[in-house]
Amino acid sequence: MNTIAILGGGLVGSLLAWRLARQGKKVHLYEAASENAPQSAAYTAAAMIAPFAERSVCHPDVFNAGLRSLELWPELLKELEQDCGVKVRYQTQGSLLLAHPSDYAEMRQFEADMRIHQLLNHVSVQHLAGSEVRAVEPDVAAHFTEGYWLKNDAQVDNRSLLLALKKAAQSMGVEYYFNSQVNKDHVNKGQVNKDGGDWFCDGTKINAERFIDTRGVNAKSEINNLRGVRGEVLWVSCPEVNIQRPLRLLHPRYHLYLVPRGEGRYQLGATEIESEDRSPVSVRSAMEMLSALWTLVPSMSEARILSFETNLRPATPDHKPIIQQHENTLSINGLFRHGYLLAPALLERCEKEYSLNLNMSLFANALETDYA
Ligand SMILES: Cc1cc2nc3c(=O)[nH]c(=O)nc-3n(C[C@H](O)[C@H](O)[C@H](O)COP(=O)(O)OP(=O)(O)OC[C@H]3O[C@@H](n4cnc5c(N)ncnc54)[C@H](O)[C@@H]3O)c2cc1C
Fold it and tell me: Is 0.85 topped by the overall pTM?
């Protein structure tokens, strides 16, 4: 049987391995990191599927793909549970957008953007007065006198998702090769040449009929103008407070969020810095994130810090994803800060345009929704 080699086991690679295996394909997945120490942006991400919160900062194509992904994720997770017995937590309580009173200009700008996109009166966009903010999220600080509840935004438990995808894929025969760094020959020889050539893993040529390059930011050697954008996050534990949905703070210098991650844990993030530096979180970023935490939920001042983490988002110049076929290699990349928002919709597109049999069309007719 023809083998499909997937290069990179982050978000896109993991989803593809499972979908292809379930269609009876023979799949080998090569991942540079070790099995127990994931390095993917997918692992670091907050995994919000938040097209409404992102609308004012993303391309219309990304927004529309996000709407489609909101429809596809629940179906995919249902199938994943059938395949591996793991129910991945999927939050559907929307996100809550807040601004400190001194930053209400940011809120008015958000409103102006939503009005331009004819979304301000959308059924899933609800303005809240201060008392309504507290009715929705009682632990939010009293100084927030208004907010927006973006009711259709969602969030997926990415770490259990990645484990579940691996479990399902392996049960269907996908062979995983960890600690396996894959490159084109020209990279191994230190040459700049993006045209063709074989794929090698640790000096050995990989034999496969088709390759899918999903190496995130490390695919720079094959994709022009791909860059990494540094994102820093921190995790805290605070079982005493009970935030139900992602809180997003509008601020003139940074936009940060606080995401409930279950069992009293919260993820706070993320910076967005034009740098490919993977070194630990800076003091400045830590202070900005912690001050956002304090501003949003003062009762979290006694929260315990669990970890600081850094990773790189793979980004293109226009911040839209890139799908390109060159000889026998399909590259899927540039998902930037929208991997979870985009992935199911992108897979559907790959199925239609690049003849990858992923059985995504199964959902097509049943789910079409008019968001106009
Ligand atoms: C801090 C942060 C927060 C984020 N929050 C969100 C969010 O809330 N919502 C959202 O939609 N998106 C979010 N994202 C973006 C999302 O994580 C990415 O868009 C997504 O993970 C990209 O998927 P990918 O598969 O292309 O790359 P990755 O997930 O990075 O996977 C690439 C994989 O390839 C492997 N690899 C690299 N080089 C090689 C090689 N030479 N050989 C073999 N394997 C290799 C890597 O180890 C990795 O496992 C966030 C990202 C960050 C960093």
Answer: yes
